[in-house]
Write a structure and sequence with these properties.
about 200 residues; alpha/beta; Maf protein; 6-stranded mixed beta sheet; 6 strands; binds inosine 5'-triphosphate
């Protein structure tokens, strides 16, 4: 079947992620989990980004014959021993982007080293095959949020080599540099080499 006729179902509830994935996997029809499963909320109880991505992908694959793709991603801050890490989306008690960012800035008070990286683990399941790829983007955390694009920690993250936060950049530029892009490019190469 030609690549452009292929459907991939993504194990996410995050609209921002879906948009980013659609911009990268051009030529594929990208459908959200909610079109196949009501209230898709797998228990992300893994100890790593890849374990959680695998949990999400396997949970969705039970309901879907199409290839499924799952992303688990987050921010790791070096001087905080990798916090918030796999807890990135539920770092603060409220769990909103705003409260998570506020907690991060508080935790970094007095720390000289503000270097950080975004991490993404992508898992693709096609039939019996499970493909797992990681992507990273390094940068630093600034002192107060800037910009309105993107989501999560984008307003406080400046990637190395730039002066704008991810939230100040055009979404297309963030999407060129991002951890998700890097992981997805590797997945895309595998997909293109596949004869399914
Ligand atoms: P799904 O599990 O439904 O995919 P989620 O938002 O809960 O959606 P994760 O469990 O992968 O996704 O948590 C990712 C969190 O990490 C996300 O909520 C943000 O706080 C942060 N994050 C991940 N990628 C990011 C990005 O590109 N920009 C900013 N923050 C990001």
């Amino acid at each position: 079947m030609p690549l452009e006729n292929r459907v991939i179902v993504v194990a996410t509830n995050n609209e921002h992620k879906l948009r980013e994935i659609r911009e990268i996997l051009i030529g594929f029809e990208i459908l959200p989990a909610k079109e196949f499963v009501k209230d898709f909320k797998p228990n992300e109880a893994g100890n790593s980004f890849c374990e959680n991505a695998l949990i999400k992908a396997r949970a969705l694959k039970k309901y879907v014959d199409y290839p499924v793709l799952a992303d688990d991603s987050g921010l790791e801050v070096f001087s905080l021993n990798g916090e918030p890490g796999i807890y990135s989306s539920r770092y603060s008690a409220e769990g909103t982007d705003r409260a998570n960012v506020e907690k991060l800035l508080n935790r970094l008070k007095g720390k000289k080293d503000r270097s950080a990286r975004f991490v993404c683990c992508m898992v693709l399941i096609v039939g019996e095959r499970v493909i797992q790829k990681e992507g990273y983007v390094h940068g630093r955390i600034i002192y107060a949020p800037r910009g309105n694009n993107g989501f999560g920690y984008d307003p406080v993250f400046i990637p190395d080599g730039f002066e704008l936060t991810f939230a100040e950049m055009e979404p297309s530029l963030k999407n060129k540099l991002s951890h998700r892009r890097k992981a997805l490019e590797k997945i895309k190469a595998e997909l293109e080499a596949m004869d399914v």
